[in-house]
Amino acid sequence: MALTKSFEKYGATFANAYHRVSELRYHVSEYITYNMVQQAPDENGDPVPPITEEVWATDRQVFFTLLTYVDQDARDNHSEAAARAEYSFTPDWDATDNVLAQAYAYLKTLDIFADAVDA
Predict the structure, then answer these.
(1) What is the spatial distance between Cα 32 and Cα 69, in angstroms, rounded to a whole number?
(2) Bridge partner list, 93
(3) What is the pLDDT of residues 11-60, one digit of tens each?
(4) Is residue 28 within 8 Å of residue 85, measured between CB atoms?
(5) Ramachandran area for residue 90 (φ above 0: left; ψ -120 to 50: alpha; else beta)
(6) Rounded to whole angstroms, what are the CA distances from 92 to 30, 46, 58?
(7) What is the pTM of this model?
(8) Helix, strand and coil percent figures for the chain, each rounded to 5
(9) Alpha-carbon distance 60 to 114, whole Å?
């Protein structure tokens, strides 16, 4: 899996730049949040103060490194990447696509990769 899209660096444009996810990691954070829950009025119709309710929340985030090569041959020949960038997104754990496929799909939602092509 990879994307191809032109890339500019060193004062040159690489028309067939090859963009590949090289590292993919995810972080799961669980923490308590507090919600204020309104109570029904008492038997006299007087308001009752709200109660605080503890709720466990989970945050899942995927982080990945994207390496950019001048073209696929450079990548296949183990040349040094021309650029490295870090990205993150919230994955859909119920999706049929795996997290790596979701990373590439996420990239294509960004303006910089809007016209990228699957390689």
Answers:
(1) 43
(2) none
(3) 999 999 999 999 999 999 999 999 999 999 999 999 999 999 999 999 99
(4) no
(5) beta
(6) 17, 45, 13
(7) 0.78
(8) 15, 45, 40
(9) 25
